[in-house]
Amino acid sequence: MYLICGYILGAGAYGLVQTIYWQKDSKAYFDDFHRKPSIFYSMTQKSFFPFIKHLEMLLDYSAPSVLTKGVYGWLIWFAFTQPSIDDRWLALIWLSSAYLITLTDLYDFSVRGEILYPSLLLLAFANLLTAQSFYWQNFLLLLPLCFFVWQQQLGDGDLILIGGWAPWLTTHQLLWLLIIASCCGLLFFSLHKLFVGKQLQMLPFVPCLSVALVLVRFL
Questions:
Q1: At 18, is the pLDDT very low, low, confident or very high (cuts 50, 70, 90)?
Q2: Residue 77 · residue 3 · CB < 8 Å
Q3: How far is CA 36 from CA 42, 90, 108, 161, 201, in A?
Q4: 176 contacts 145 by C-beta, under 8 angstroms
Q5: Are the C-beta atoms of 32 and 52 separated by less than 8 Å?
């Protein structure tokens, strides 16, 4: 049941991300798909109304679409296997926000503020409401990351996202989050070089952070 609900909500997440880009420039959205990652190629047919487009996403059974919606279905199921009601809703907020931000990063290698800031505020509210510990000292660990942002090796949106997650993770969890995410990025770079034969110029880092979050926070 949770998997089915998550699959349907995954189509809604598709629709939310697409609506944000439609509002920016609908013509550019449809005319510039040659630069988008292949995971979004199945959504290039024009529609006159967002509702129709969202319905198309739900009924799209191409492999990338099914995989992406299936991932959210698994996240919904995973969130509701947590031991208590508070843990379930907190996990749902953690995983849903990470999923949405991951979609935008996969789309055009950016972290969209329309999703980033509300999700971090909602996450902070949920953690405060459930009386979670606040690890303020974790912000000190993020200072070295500012150097990578200055060197343009890390996006400012990635740093803001990590900063929004940091106080709600233990110091141990935060360190492992950064280590695992970095290893995932290096692994992806290496595999791309090995199988494609050329150096990858840009890497969406939020998916690496999201995978690390699931591992260190919920497993």
A1: low
A2: yes
A3: 11, 32, 6, 22, 14
A4: no
A5: no
